Amino acid sequence: MITFKTNLGDIKIKLDFDNAPVTAKNFQQYAENSFYDGTIFHRVIKGFMAQGGGFASGMEEKTTREPIKNEANNGLSNKRGTLAMARTQDPHSASAQFFINLVDNDFLDFKNESTQGWGYCVFAEVVEGMDIVDKMTVVETGRFGFHDDVPKEEIVIESTIVE
Protein backbone atom coordinates (compact mmCIF):
# COMPACT_ATOMS: atom_id res chain seq x y z
CA MET A 1 0.00 0.00 0.00
CA ILE A 2 1.25 3.48 -0.87
CA THR A 3 -0.23 6.73 0.40
CA PHE A 4 0.35 10.02 -1.37
CA LYS A 5 -0.14 12.91 1.06
CA THR A 6 -1.13 15.77 -1.25
CA ASN A 7 -2.06 19.38 -0.58
CA LEU A 8 -5.66 18.34 -1.40
CA GLY A 9 -5.72 15.26 0.86
CA ASP A 10 -4.53 11.65 0.99
CA ILE A 11 -4.70 9.11 -1.84
CA LYS A 12 -4.17 5.46 -0.88
CA ILE A 13 -2.97 3.14 -3.65
CA LYS A 14 -2.83 -0.67 -3.81
CA LEU A 15 -0.21 -2.08 -6.18
CA ASP A 16 -0.97 -5.17 -8.29
CA PHE A 17 2.18 -7.30 -8.10
CA ASP A 18 0.35 -10.35 -9.50
CA ASN A 19 -0.61 -8.82 -12.85
CA ALA A 20 2.07 -6.14 -13.29
CA PRO A 21 5.11 -7.28 -11.25
CA VAL A 22 7.77 -5.22 -13.05
CA THR A 23 5.66 -2.06 -13.08
CA ALA A 24 4.46 -2.38 -9.47
CA LYS A 25 8.04 -2.97 -8.25
CA ASN A 26 9.29 0.00 -10.29
CA PHE A 27 6.61 2.29 -8.82
CA GLN A 28 7.27 1.03 -5.29
CA GLN A 29 11.02 1.68 -5.69
CA TYR A 30 10.34 5.28 -6.73
CA ALA A 31 7.99 5.64 -3.74
CA GLU A 32 10.49 4.08 -1.29
CA ASN A 33 13.21 6.43 -2.57
CA SER A 34 10.91 9.44 -1.91
CA PHE A 35 11.11 10.29 -5.63
CA TYR A 36 7.46 11.40 -5.72
CA ASP A 37 7.80 13.72 -2.70
CA GLY A 38 7.46 17.28 -3.95
CA THR A 39 6.27 16.27 -7.41
CA ILE A 40 3.11 17.73 -8.89
CA PHE A 41 0.17 16.47 -10.88
CA HIS A 42 1.22 18.35 -14.00
CA ARG A 43 -1.56 17.34 -16.40
CA VAL A 44 -5.21 17.13 -15.43
CA ILE A 45 -7.96 16.61 -17.99
CA LYS A 46 -11.49 16.51 -16.60
CA GLY A 47 -13.34 13.41 -17.79
CA PHE A 48 -10.07 11.66 -18.67
CA MET A 49 -7.12 11.45 -16.28
CA ALA A 50 -4.72 13.14 -13.82
CA GLN A 51 -1.01 12.67 -14.55
CA GLY A 52 1.93 13.06 -12.20
CA GLY A 53 5.27 11.69 -11.15
CA GLY A 54 7.67 13.50 -13.44
CA PHE A 55 7.86 17.17 -12.49
CA ALA A 56 8.73 19.09 -9.34
CA SER A 57 7.18 22.44 -8.46
CA GLY A 58 7.53 24.99 -11.26
CA MET A 59 7.36 22.22 -13.91
CA GLU A 60 10.98 21.23 -13.31
CA GLU A 61 11.46 17.82 -14.95
CA LYS A 62 12.96 15.15 -12.69
CA THR A 63 15.63 12.66 -13.75
CA THR A 64 14.39 9.07 -13.77
CA ARG A 65 15.83 5.58 -13.95
CA GLU A 66 15.82 3.57 -17.18
CA PRO A 67 12.43 2.83 -18.79
CA ILE A 68 10.69 -0.47 -18.05
CA LYS A 69 8.99 -3.12 -20.16
CA ASN A 70 5.34 -2.40 -20.94
CA GLU A 71 3.13 -4.96 -19.16
CA ALA A 72 -0.15 -3.63 -20.59
CA ASN A 73 -0.92 -7.11 -21.98
CA ASN A 74 -1.78 -8.23 -18.42
CA GLY A 75 -5.56 -8.29 -18.86
CA LEU A 76 -6.20 -5.23 -16.66
CA SER A 77 -8.30 -2.38 -18.00
CA ASN A 78 -7.95 1.39 -17.63
CA LYS A 79 -11.06 1.72 -15.47
CA ARG A 80 -11.95 4.65 -13.21
CA GLY A 81 -9.64 4.71 -10.20
CA THR A 82 -6.86 2.62 -11.72
CA LEU A 83 -3.29 3.84 -12.13
CA ALA A 84 -1.40 3.28 -15.36
CA MET A 85 2.08 4.21 -16.51
CA ALA A 86 2.49 7.24 -18.73
CA ARG A 87 4.89 6.90 -21.65
CA THR A 88 5.94 8.38 -24.97
CA GLN A 89 5.05 6.94 -28.40
CA ASP A 90 7.56 4.16 -27.63
CA PRO A 91 5.48 1.44 -25.91
CA HIS A 92 8.40 0.53 -23.62
CA SER A 93 9.35 4.05 -22.46
CA ALA A 94 7.57 4.31 -19.09
CA SER A 95 9.73 5.23 -16.12
CA ALA A 96 8.23 7.25 -13.23
CA GLN A 97 5.23 9.11 -14.62
CA PHE A 98 1.79 7.66 -14.03
CA PHE A 99 -1.82 8.69 -14.40
CA ILE A 100 -5.02 8.03 -12.51
CA ASN A 101 -8.00 7.24 -14.71
CA LEU A 102 -10.90 9.56 -13.86
CA VAL A 103 -13.34 7.55 -15.99
CA ASP A 104 -13.28 4.20 -17.79
CA ASN A 105 -10.69 4.68 -20.56
CA ASP A 106 -10.90 1.29 -22.29
CA PHE A 107 -9.40 2.78 -25.47
CA LEU A 108 -6.05 2.91 -23.59
CA ASP A 109 -6.05 -0.87 -23.04
CA PHE A 110 -3.70 -3.35 -24.72
CA LYS A 111 -4.90 -4.50 -28.15
CA ASN A 112 -1.81 -6.02 -29.77
CA GLU A 113 1.99 -5.74 -29.79
CA SER A 114 2.16 -2.96 -32.36
CA THR A 115 3.21 0.63 -31.63
CA GLN A 116 -0.45 1.73 -31.73
CA GLY A 117 -1.80 -1.36 -29.98
CA TRP A 118 0.36 -1.73 -26.88
CA GLY A 119 -1.75 0.49 -24.66
CA TYR A 120 -0.96 1.75 -21.16
CA CYS A 121 -0.12 -0.62 -18.32
CA VAL A 122 -2.53 -0.66 -15.38
CA PHE A 123 -0.57 -1.60 -12.25
CA ALA A 124 -2.53 -0.27 -9.26
CA GLU A 125 -5.81 1.20 -8.05
CA VAL A 126 -6.93 3.93 -5.71
CA VAL A 127 -8.50 2.24 -2.68
CA GLU A 128 -9.11 5.43 -0.67
CA GLY A 129 -9.15 9.07 -1.73
CA MET A 130 -10.84 8.98 -5.12
CA ASP A 131 -12.74 12.04 -3.85
CA ILE A 132 -9.36 13.79 -3.59
CA VAL A 133 -8.53 12.78 -7.17
CA ASP A 134 -11.91 14.15 -8.28
CA LYS A 135 -11.06 17.47 -6.56
CA MET A 136 -8.14 17.78 -8.97
CA THR A 137 -10.55 18.04 -11.88
CA VAL A 138 -12.14 21.27 -10.66
CA VAL A 139 -8.90 23.27 -10.63
CA GLU A 140 -8.30 25.68 -13.47
CA THR A 141 -5.71 24.50 -16.00
CA GLY A 142 -3.75 26.20 -18.74
CA ARG A 143 -0.58 26.17 -20.80
CA PHE A 144 2.90 26.18 -19.23
CA GLY A 145 5.72 26.22 -21.79
CA PHE A 146 5.11 23.28 -24.12
CA HIS A 147 2.61 21.66 -21.73
CA ASP A 148 -1.18 21.89 -21.85
CA ASP A 149 -3.72 21.09 -19.11
CA VAL A 150 -1.34 22.18 -16.31
CA PRO A 151 -3.15 23.11 -13.07
CA LYS A 152 -2.75 26.87 -12.42
CA GLU A 153 -2.51 26.11 -8.69
CA GLU A 154 -0.07 23.27 -8.12
CA ILE A 155 -1.36 19.94 -6.83
CA VAL A 156 1.62 18.65 -4.86
CA ILE A 157 2.50 15.19 -3.55
CA GLU A 158 3.96 16.44 -0.28
CA SER A 159 5.10 13.03 0.99
CA THR A 160 4.81 9.33 0.27
CA ILE A 161 4.18 6.56 2.78
CA VAL A 162 4.96 2.97 1.81
CA GLU A 163 3.31 0.34 4.01
Automatic annotation (TrEMBL):
InterPro entries: Cyclophilin-like_dom_sf (IPR029000), Cyclophilin-type_PPIase (IPR024936), Cyclophilin-type_PPIase_CS (IPR020892), Cyclophilin-type_PPIase_dom (IPR002130), E_coli_cyclophilin_A-like (IPR044665). This is Peptidyl-prolyl cis-trans isomerase. It catalyses: [protein]-peptidylproline (omega=180) = [protein]-peptidylproline (omega=0). GO terms for molecular function: peptidyl-prolyl cis-trans isomerase activity. The keyword Isomerase applies. Gene3D superfamilies: Cyclophilin-like (2.40.100.10). It is found in: Cytoplasm.
